[in-house]
């Protein structure tokens, strides 16, 4: 008997029909002799609908109130899931994030988890019942003992699932979604993208950071640190999906050093033109100006790709919604930063080749550049690290670029993989 | 400067437009120099929508999970209201029932309040901010210190408002709704029904118990016990509405001993025919059978009118949705209870004349019966107490019956009141 945490995303619980289907699956796992902890996201578009309500009321909702508002979404799906499980004759109990012992720092909207104390979840399992926990939310207790609802930011339900798995010493953390697992590229734009049976934490984290939406980067890092195996699979079928763990899976050799291509079409680009000869102090000052605006922007800066083009241009790639406020902040600081011009591209294509020891194989970078040129893609910049090459291109050429890389490294059909992967050596 | 609790019902906060309008009113009260505590119900039909979701999932949702589900509705309206107030430049803070210190017994769905400890609400007021509290919900803490979300049952947000008003020693508890106040009858069916400027706790409670939906009976009782004045008024205009308090208002003399007519079209009737000569033991046993089924039914029994027709028929009037399960329970106990037949009327008309010292004025009862006969209404039974005469009639004659009583006691136009009230003396 093992302990399994099963997390179901919004599309997996988007209707009461889906909730009942998912409940059957959960009960089957329980009846197979496992302890089961369920983590649910809000139903379908609930979170977006709640955000729309907030935006209707005010352009600048206070973060604390936004957290109170958004946390309602998971409480709804959570209670409905517990009802659906009980309706199948298996005891279940729902818990809010606070009740499940997810304690966080005070920061609203992207609260850092400070402690996980799932005593009540454990007691529920001990008496043979299924524990159902609202994802994405926690609680902050101040010195006076007063509690405030917090949310964990994007991908927060994945994080809830993993931290509970770690705290409960679970054997497996399953992430159920509307795709069959982790692919070598987004199958919606690369038809021959291949499902990976197994992927390492490192590769998975790089894929997630680079735009693969199937798992939140933070949850992968946490699982890696504590050695909890994760499985990404579909809630619409019984396929095993993709195992994410520390060990290298049996198939990884097939695609050599290159694992997959991730892309991100949600970025904007700001270019500071004619910056005085690039000094680290100035770069740091630009970062400070950008990071000083908003909580969410802090993340965008961490996520940004910086590239010095020539002596005097600096480009900043960031989530598109953060573009306008960052532009405003940079304009206000223009005298201090001393740039000549500020350019803004509302959308930029960003694609990343993910693999291991990429820098020790010079052929890979050459293939990246040649392939894009052959596909007619204008390569704006390419930045490299040992696990990831990230290129920027015009937004309307992004699909072509992803397909070109995916084909060049033979990531699709296994029989081609050996041949093409060779070009990277 | 005084402390005012303002409660807004679902129709008052049914859209973000309405929430913004209401926020303006709240801020105006605050700017007039008052401390303001706001209690909100769920937006519009949210509670019904959530109940529909639960019913989609299972015919018998566990009460604990239902409470977790339903409590989400008030958290949403609550957070949105705090945002709307803050958007107007006035500091506000939202609180769940638990955070506002509404502590209850364990019973889900209709939890009894055991303690009100609104320390955080008080602190919020002390620093000049408006406290916004989610109505209808509380929290139960068990011996281990574990907390469970509870809801307070029908009219729960009114109760939240009044218990907070009492605990905070408020000067006034205002209940905002979509009608202008308390009328002598439902103005939708009695066009000349008159708005009461003032009504006593006693009369208000009887009106509420008898079907006037404008206030929850429990909240009126609690306000009466602690002497907190209530005001029922519209959130759509600035009219003063109806004051509910212990003292007798200036206009009460006009309508003599009779204050108003309440009606209730939501009841069903069960008749046990041919019951062995009515003994108190048997009546008690029937009550036990009925009350033993469900939490909600307990309330229906408390609310029921019993009438012995002849020697051997007993009628039970109860909320229509409780009819089928009670019928089932009675059938199962038929051998023990020994009735010959069980009859069920899905809908029965129930109307109540509310006033004071009704029994000391024999003319009132005579007028009640004569008026219904003259209006062609079949009077099934009439039961009397000093503050209320309650008659049953066919459901399709209820409107005629209400209009007949309202006219007979001159409750509409003041100049007629004196004349007609005379018939009741």
TrEMBL record, chains A, B:
Single GO MF descriptor: aspartate kinase activity
Domain Aspartokinase ACT residue range list: 351-409
InterPro entries referenced in this protein's UniProt entry, alphabetically: AceGlu_kinase-like_sf, ACT-like_dom_sf, ACT_Aspartokinase, AKii-LysC-BS, Asp/Glu/Uridylate_kinase, Asp_kin_monofn, Asp_kinase, Aspartate_kinase_CS
Domain spans labelled Aspartate/glutamate/uridylate kinase: 3-234
Keywords noted in UniProt: Amino-acid biosynthesis, ATP-binding, Diaminopimelate biosynthesis, Kinase, Lysine biosynthesis, Nucleotide-binding, Transferase
Pathway: Amino-acid biosynthesis; L-lysine biosynthesis via DAP pathway; (S)-tetrahydrodipicolinate from L-aspartate: step 1/4; Amino-acid biosynthesis; L-threonine biosynthesis; L-threonine from L-aspartate: step 1/5; Amino-acid biosynthesis; L-methionine biosynthesis via de novo pathway; L-homoserine from L-aspartate: step 1/3
Superkingdom as given in the UniProt entry: Bacteria
Enzymatic reactions: L-aspartate + ATP = 4-phospho-L-aspartate + ADP
EC number: 2.7.2.4
Protein purpose: Catalyzes the phosphorylation of the beta-carboxyl group of aspartic acid with ATP to yield 4-phospho-L-aspartate, which is involved in the branched biosynthetic pathway leading to the biosynthesis of amino acids lysine, threonine, isoleucine and methionine.
Family: Belongs to the aspartokinase family.
PANTHER family to which the protein is assigned, alphabetical: ASPARTATE KINASE, ASPARTOKINASE
Protein name: Aspartokinase
Organism: Catenulispora pinistramenti
Higher taxonomy: Bacteria, Bacillati, Actinomycetota, Actinomycetes, Catenulisporales
